[in-house]
Amino acid sequence: MIKDFNHMKKAVNTKFGKDLFKKVHDKKGMTVLAQAYNGTRQTTSNKAIKSLADMKGMKLRVPSAAANLAFAKYTGASPTPMAFSEVYLALQTNAVDGQENPLSTIKAQKFYEVQKYLAMTNHILNDQLYLVSNITMEELPENLQKVVKESAEVAAEYHTKLFMDEEKSLKSFFKSKGVTITEPNLADFKKAMKPFYDEYTKKNGKVGEDAIKAIEAVR
What we know:
- InterPro entries: DctP_fam, TRAP_DctP, TRAP_DctP_sf.
- The longest helix is centred in the C-terminal third of the chain and has 35 residues, at 142-176.
- It is built from nine helices and six strands; from the N terminus they run H-H-E-E-H-E-H-E-H-E-H-H-E-H-H.
- A six-stranded mixed sheet has the order 3-2-4-1-5-6.
- The protein has one domain (5-217): D-Maltodextrin-Binding Protein, domain 2 (3-Layer(aba) Sandwich), CATH 3.40.190.
- The N and C termini lie close together (9 Å).
- The chain has helices at 5-11, 15-28, 66-74, 87-92, 103-108, 134-139, 142-176, 186-192, 194-217, and strands at residues 30-45, 59-62, 78-81, 98-102, 117-133, 180-182.
């Protein structure tokens, strides 16, 4: 649903996004200072993923998070949660057929050593929120609150630039390591995920419907 980081930034300025940050403030006791890009999740595997059909039956390691589990489930794979520390060995021994993570993580963890196929599935955009406790923020005078927020925004912009700049070079890096990169038709993946959004709107009613409409409207 989220196209890219620019789309995400627009989405958080909708009523849905503002309400979400307000919940963080009111229920978690945290103030959102800034938001940074933290990579887009792609899929590595022990066979080429050229289309949605190639996902069928694949044992895909995912974290125990609703969106990641849903991605595996609705694309036809078999969701396989496991600890992050166990992933490399599981890929190496074919205990699982694939995993999904941002490109920077795939490089850092050297998953390319044991998985020679990378599909640009663009299925989840990771962000990083810069947070401060409400108590800490409220103890500061207004001029220092402004300094803290502005500093967080500068840091988040730099954070975003680092990730985006690295991602531009990583395809070439993976190719140099013998990884085959495929770009499946993402429209098919989006269509496959429709039941996930239907469940969301069923659970959240009009609020859920309005949220999805608002996010789609600012694409």
